[in-house]
Amino acid sequence: MSFGEVQQVSGATFYISQMDGILGLGYGTISVDGLPTWLDSSDLSDKSFGFYLHDNPEQSYMTIPGFETDGLNFVGTHDVIQEAYWSLNLTSMSGPNGAIDTTGWFGVIDSGTSLIVGPNSLIDPLIEGITVDKYCAGVDSLPDVSFTFDSQVYTLTSADYVIQVQDQCIMGIAAMEFPEGFNYLILGDVFMRPYPTYFDQNNNTVSFYSKA
Questions:
Q1: Where exactly are the structural domains of the chain?
Q2: Which end of the chain is more exposed for a tag (fewer CB within 10 A), N or C?
Q3: Per CATH, domain 12-211 is 1.10.10.10
Q4: pTM for this structure?
């Protein structure tokens, strides 16, 4: 097995996160320098894995291979429509201002991204009118937002998309400038936390569950 060595990094994520390395779990088509991914290099016949994320990091864990369904309710399974990132068919999303057209955009499920991140053209109308108070006042009354893959709707309440760190709150959905042609809405830990996620490379599917 080959490893890619990182000698220098930039960005706040790398400075505040405690990590010993990055285990790339995307498809080999986006691997740096064409290095075989860990999953492709393994001798596992079941090339799948699952994430169970909680507000308390000590309760969060992942499984390789397979997925544990005890205490979970099945919600939906979706085909990966582009084998690069774990890209799903994002048919629509909605917030307090109604539905937003997502034609031409992929929904990427990514455990390596803490927030839900997308271009301004999608995120700004989604969260317009949602104001997260720094000291968490009124957070419980904020409206829901939803994301639809194929025909299955996944709803996030304010308890899901507002991140509370000690006694302060921040919005877990952020807009940023994406390069031309990068047509992805990245649904990271904020989305995966309420929906335990099963990635199955054998069948090229992603399945979501809800906590009982």
A1: 12-211
A2: C
A3: no
A4: 0.88
